[in-house]
Specification:
The structure is a homodimer.
Chain A lengths: L2 H25 L4 H14 L6 H12 L6 H24 L3 E2 L2 E2 L1 H9 L6 H25 L5 H28 L7 H27 L8 H21 L2 H4 L5 H5 L4 H9 L2 H10 L7 H13 L2 H21 L7 H17 L2
Antiparallel strand pairs in A: 1-2
């Protein structure tokens, strides 16, 4: 099976599993407000996405010779973890759109508009609770799988470690807006915690543990690939189209996101360049014209090339490491994982 | 051992266990911002409280003959669950004080003041993450206990069920402000989910499961006692002193909390009474004078008596049920639990 087939097939399996989880969840819940909230979490979770984390967990499991389909359910729980993080992220970033549709806090603020003094507060409150519920559902789904109890216990501890460090990454991200000295080193730590650990290493490690394998072998592949993926994602965030990134093209600038592109352009640009960037960064009413100016500076200063070259170097290092390893599950899955790394870097999810 | 001794001794053990957890947690974390966040969660968790949930879990375990001290650690994790809910609650209610000190979102807004456009957003963001981390720590602590894996797995599923239904209770609570037809029935469901299930039944059930016992026997004791406890807590919220409740005496009114006291006073009062209550309810700048007027109406309409009588009836029903049961762990612990029920209703935590 090639990588695209593997992804397509498993994306469908994961989404079926999520639908089934929500179907059973709703069966036991009569109260209309509760059902409505559960349906919102379901709809949000099933809006799309490549299910990359779930697929990596399945690959980690197969690479260590893991058989059977219980891994699909364990892997699907990562998509609920993802909903939990994204729902709370949307609140923190004050995002209005997620995958082209209303974020949950915006949706619920709309429901309360005209009924109470502070509909935005209501919207955020429901969304905080919805994120919390998605978190609890994720652990429930993961823990209801039928693996040997000792492995499942070990994997759950790893899942909690991943969630913990993703929280730390999120924290550094939130602080980045008030830190004057937020530079390349701080940013790469953030990418390691929030992306490499959470999106690439963690899922592979969980699959390995559930198959009885050693998760550590994935580290020198997953961390560089994960950081490269985030660098690439930030490039897409600044240079992509609204259709491609699912939110306004000015979002990253408006949020004040200190990406490596921005950090290096500030470092390598002249005083006028710096001023243009600083005027746009964190400015909620930043214009398309300002965006164009920032894009030009990121290109002309060589900052775009810097990020691209760093990403390419990291990808090569990660792939070389993976190629040097042998897995009990065989070369087929290793090749899928190698192709998947290329795919992620080129397309970004 | 009598109830007060049991509580005092176990409160100290639980707090030592929490301190040890945070000591080890911080050992592995170098980053100053992350350490600071962990210290804030620790400080918040150790601000005080009777540790009633932890103590009930220990009692549930002892009642079913559970021996040894590993239960202390499992029980202490409920205090982290409590921090998770309270930190998020504080955001949702826009509370400034918790146990007489700054809530976390207020504390972090203060740190960002003057540094960014929207310090309140920053404060809320850090607090959302802090609550999320407390959630993850709670499951980690619970799952790192050394119980037989099958019992621990079953107990973890019950813990997740408790957290899920507490979330549903929270949801109904948040909705109560926009629902016109929020009445006694809705309120008692809210109390069942958010208080009886979470504060009384859940902890006892977890202790029972970890000792290999049947958690269901606690239901007809815990649910009525839990609802009574909440009714009593609402009385304290309206009639208590600032010192006693740890936040401004007008808080419940300002938040627009539709307690049974309020619902019944609206039902039983005349048009003028209703208007006075509706002017005060959900009014962020409600005065002490308005509070006094509302208190007088709650007394004169008989609403206070209604809540008190219902609470007393529920307590009696719960205690009678418990007295009819026999436990392998012996009568000593049952008597402590009976005394604890009285204590909770009289003092409120």
């Amino acid at each position: 099976m090639d990588m695209m087939e593997f992804m397509k097939e498993h994306k469908a399996l994961v989404e079926d599993t999520l639908r089934e989880f929500f179907r059973r969840k709703k069966e036991g819940l009569d109260h209309p407000l509760i059902r409505d909230a559960v349906e919102s979490i379901e709809e949000y979770t099933l809006r799309g996405g490549k299910r990359i984390r779930a697929i990596l967990m399945i690959l980690g499991y197969r690479l260590f010779g893991g058989a059977g389909n219980e891994i699909i359910k364990a892997a699907s729980s990562l998509e609920l973890v993802q909903s939990y993080f994204l729902i709370h992220d949307d609140i923190m970033d004050e995002s209005e759109l997620r995958r082209g549709e209303e974020t949950l806090h915006v949706k619920y603020a709309g429901i309360a508009r005209g009924k109470i003094r502070d509909p935005d507060r209501f919207g955020e409150n429901v969304a905080i609770i919805a994120g919390d519920l998605a978190n609890t559902y994720a652990i429930e789904m993961f823990n209801s799988t039928d693996f040997p109890l000792d492995r499942k216990n070990e994997a759950l501890m790893e899942l909690l470690r991943i969630m913990e460090f993703t929280g730390y990454g999120q924290l550094i991200d939130v602080y980045s807006s008030i830190l004057d000295d937020f530079g390349e080193q701080e940013l790469l730590l953030l990418h390691e915690y929030k992306t490499a650990n959470y999106t690439i290493y963690g899922p592979l490690a969980l699959g390995a543990i559930l198959a009885g394998g050693n998760p550590d072998v994935f580290r020198d592949f997953a961390i560089p690939i994960g950081i490269a993926f985030q660098l690439q994602d930030d490039i897409l965030g600044l240079f992509g189209t609204e259709e491609r990134i699912g939110k306004p093209v000015t979002s990253d600038l408006a949020e004040g996101k200190k990406t490596l592109l921005i950090i290096k352009a500030l470092e390598m640009g002249n005083e006028k360049d710096r001023q243009i960037i600083l005027d746009a960064l964190g400015n909620p009413s930043v214009t398309r014209e300002q965006l164009e100016q920032v894009r030009n500076i990121v290109v002309s200063t060589g900052s775009l090339d810097y990020s691209r070259n760093l990403a390419a170097k990291l990808v090569q290092r990660g792939k070389e490491h993976l190629t040097s390893l042998n897995f009990p599950g065989g070369e087929e899955y290793r090749n899928i994982l190698l192709d998947l790394a290329d795919y992620m870097i080129k397309r970004t999810m």
